[in-house]
Design goal:
Elements (H helix, E strand, L loop, with lengths): L25 H7 L7 H11 L19 E9 L3 E15 L6 E13 L7 H16 L7
Antiparallel strand pairs: 1-2, 2-3
Helix pairs in contact: 2-3
Length: 145
């Protein structure tokens, strides 16, 4: 973790940031605290991607989206296993403007999948999902929700 003056100063700890408008210490803590999906395994899966975050752009880590941050929710498809919706995620797109180096927050389109009987999903299945996410991120793939 290299702190540079050109990245600006953290508004919380007043040390130099580790990337533009990103403090590896403070922003990670803010990102991983104050929310829960209600499922410890899912929380761990999401937080594992967040703890690897090195910048503000939220295309590179997963986030739990509270229902009140969604609008215009519309059902797209349904099967025995799941229901697919699309919605607008209020304040869902987060990135750094390359010219001003300031944080930008905008609405983002989101695809939502509701698993039927999801309380019966095994830890083994969620561990496989976690492995997929780790592999995808390691090859440079990122997710847009």
């Amino acid at each position: 973790m290299i702190r540079k003056g050109k990245y600006g100063e953290c508004l919380n700890c007043y040390r130099y940031n580790t990337n533009y408008s990103w403090c590896q210490s403070c922003d990670l803590q803010l990102l991983t605290e104050g929310w829960t999906s209600g499922n410890e395994t899912i929380d761990k899966l999401i937080k594992n991607t967040q703890l690897k975050a090195t910048e503000y752009d939220n295309s590179y880590y997963l986030q739990w989206i509270p229902y009140d941050e969604l609008k215009d929710i519309e059902k797209m498809d349904e099967s025995d296993f799941s229901t697919i919706y699309h919605a607008t995620w209020i304040n869902g797109k987060k990135y750094i403007d390359q010219l001003s180096k300031e944080r930008i927050i905008k609405e983002r389109y989101a695809a939502l999948k509701k698993l039927h009987n999801s309380q019966n999903i095994s830890d083994e299945f969620l561990n496989e999902v976690n492995k997929f996410i780790i592999i995808a991120f390691s090859f440079g793939f990122h997710f847009h929700f």
